[in-house]
């Protein structure tokens, strides 16, 4: 049964994820969410700053309490990515997933996802899915490097759906995908992830702390890991890394 979405609305907050974690530790339920007009200290992957346009983004963090063993919880990143891509596609945007946790339109980032987990023993206590969607605004305010790699929903559609409507569709899709993941396992989500992937089938560069490799991304497996056919021969599996898409292979 679909839950009633409880949304805590804030004018400004350092981090919607931090606020959602505080609420979760205080007993907030499955699919309670935090949304803010301004986020002053948002985080991305690997502790990076979450760059956004104040008042012109959807800054949303959703508390999830899925019935999952801790070992399966990291797959929720892919579940969230599929949900956001489907929500944006429902407005007409050709949203695609860049491994592991970005959503793109036309090769430009429109959404970042940060999943943070709290597990007690072998079970997930709760997860917080932080979702930031660029809705509108002057991308030049992000600086030249970020602006060259980003886009907004308004730019892609020539109109901007209201923030509450985007949030509602994201929550609806996230509920559907999480429920499907719990009921049917990861494989149906994985199949849709591959259909929406802008990474699989592309020539990529993957940067790790101690090396950089190039090759062709060939698959995402049942753990959400990326398989790359590396230049020079062989196929390698990556659970994490900074990925640059060099070009699609037609």
Secondary structure blueprint with pairings:
Blueprint: E1 7-13, H1 16-25, E2 33-39, E3 57-64, H2 76-89, E4 95-98, E5 102-105, E6 108-120, E7 123-134, H3 144-149, H4 153-157, H5 163-184, H6 187-196, E8 202-208, E9 211-220, E10 226-230, E11 235-238, E12 242-248
Parallel strand pairs: 1-2
Antiparallel strand pairs: 2-3, 3-7, 4-5, 5-6, 6-7, 8-9, 8-12, 9-10, 10-11
**Which CATH C-level class of the largest domain is it?**
Alpha Beta
The domain count comes to 2
Main sheet, how many strands, which sense, barrel? 7 strands, mixed
SSE series: EHEEHEEEEHHHHEEEEE
Output the CATH topology of the largest domain.
BirA Bifunctional Protein, domain 2
Widest sheet: strand ordering: 1-2-3-7-6-5-4
Report strand %: 35-45%
Task: Determine the oligomeric state from the structure.
Answer: single chain
Round the Cα radius of gyration to an integer and report it. Answer: 17 Å
Low-confidence stretches: none
Second rung of CATH, namely the architecture of the largest domain:
2-Layer Sandwich
Helix tally equals: 6
């Amino acid at each position: 049964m679909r839950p009633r979405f409880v949304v805590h609305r804030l004018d400004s907050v350092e981090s919607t994820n931090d606020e959602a974690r505080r609420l979760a530790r205080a007993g907030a339920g499955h699919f309670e969410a935090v949304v803010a007009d301004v986020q002053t200290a948002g985080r991305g992957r690997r502790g990076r700053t979450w760059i956004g346009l104040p008042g012109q983004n959807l800054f949303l963090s959703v508390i999830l309490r899925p019935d999952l063993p801790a070992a399966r919880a990291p797959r929720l990143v892919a579940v969230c990515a599929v949900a956001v891509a489907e929500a944006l596609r429902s407005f007409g945007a050709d949203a695609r997933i860049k491994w592991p946790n970005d959503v793109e339109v036309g090769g430009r980032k429109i959404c970042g996802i940060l999943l943070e987990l709290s597990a007690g023993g072998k079970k997930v206590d709760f997860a917080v899915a932080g979702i930031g969607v660029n809705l509108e605004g002057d991308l030049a305010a992000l600086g030249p490097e970020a602006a060259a790699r980003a886009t907004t929903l308004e730019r892609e559609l020539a109109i901007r759906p209201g923030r509450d409507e985007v949030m509602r569709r994201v929550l609806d899709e996230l509920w559907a995908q999480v429920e499907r993941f719990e009921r049917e396992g990861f494989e149906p989500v994985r199949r849709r992830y591959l259909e929406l992937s802008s990474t699989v089938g592309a020539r990529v560069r993957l940067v790790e702390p101690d090396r950089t490799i190039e090759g062709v991304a060939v698959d995402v497996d049942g753990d959400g890991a990326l398989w790359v056919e590396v230049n020079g021969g062989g196929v390698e599996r990556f659970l994490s890394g900074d990925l640059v898409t060099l070009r699609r292979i037609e």
